[in-house]
Amino acid sequence: MRVSGPIDRHRIAEERFRRSVDRQGEVRDTFTSTQVPLIDGQLDVRMTPTGLRAVIERSLPTLAYGHNLDPVSVRTAVRLVSDLYGQAAEFVDWGVDVHDLRITRLDLDRDFAEVAHLDRVLRGLARIHVPRTANPSIYGDSKGGGSILTLTRQSPKRWRASLYDKHAQVLHLARQERDPTRCKRLDGLARTARGRVRFEVQLRSQALKEKGVRTVSDLNEASLLNVRKHYFQRAGFDNPVGGAPQVDEVMTRLATSASPDYGFFGAVLAMLKAEALGLPQPTTSPNTLRKYRALARQWGLSAADMACATGPTVVLDYESGRLRSAR
After folding, report:
1. Please, are residues 55 and 3 in contact by the beta-carbon 8 Å criterion?
2. In the predicted model, is pLDDT for residue 35 greater than 60?
3. Closest Cα to residue 241, out of 114, 119, 109?
């Protein structure tokens, strides 16, 4: 979580300046920023067009528990932010109360347990067309030596959603930890996280503003749960991932029911196959593509079905927190 607020002045010795020369040839040094460590985090002070602002960014679960395996409640989050606000008051004179601090980044997460065949699920979801998002990326996180399989989809500068192997991430942290006691603890946590996949959405200022979450006073448990679910669906992570059996079943159903839409089946498959392979669409007509995508959604098909040759159709069930059959 990252919060910021206006300040009247700061008491930090080391400062950064930008040097410039005015029209009269005089050299001027303009304050730009400074920072200082807090007991539980770090404080940044920056000069902005509206004046001095102080910024605090901290993983609140890590601050509360020593790890980020479990989320914190809104009540705990507000208490921790208040503590950080108080620590920062030693170095700055705040211009607002803690509840009026602006939230400029907020991470929300939801875990899914007992997820098998993660590679197939993530690679299938990566093939799905999601309107108004940048191209998804799927990779083995370099911080984990390539072992932390991660899928990300985002709307740049607004939000970024990820699905990743939480067990692999905690196991990597345990292997990197030099303190024997903490290493043992992380290793134990990794065992409890086996088969766990984490959905995480990172919300920036504009997305938060649209959802009515501007300041610390706007934090509300129920509304944040709705926001979290919205971005899980917005990222397309609620789509079923199937394969050839799913395609065969849909084709058989359409053909035997004398559906008038059966004549579009081949064209819809060609569109989905092009998406799966990252190729140009066979048709460039926006209206035609819109119609084909509507039919694909109606039939329960996606580009993920073109990428999976075998296996049952499965879906990440948001409500239960499990990977289940889509049938």
Report:
1. yes
2. yes
3. 119
Give the per-residue SS3 of 245-282.
HHHHHHHHHHHHCCCHHHHHHHHHHHHHHHHHHCCCCC
Q: What does the pLDDT read at residue 148?
A: 77
* Average pLDDT over every residue of 226-230: 97
pLDDT in tens, 50-99: 999 999 999 999 999 988 889 999 999 999 999 999 999 999 999 999 99
Domain definitions of the chain by residue range: 1-100, 104-239, 244-311
Task: Return d(Cα 229, Cα 237) in angstroms, integer.
Answer: 10
Report the C-alpha dihedral over residues 80, 86, 90, 94, rounded to 10 degrees.
110
State the angle between helix axes of 286-299 and 265-277 in degrees (0 to 180), rounded to the nearest 10.
100
State the residue for tokens 């460590």: 37
Q: Exposed, middle or buried: residue 242 (CB in 10 Å: 0-12, 13-18, 19+)?
A: buried
Query: Rounded distance, CA 271 to CA 268, Å?
Result: 5
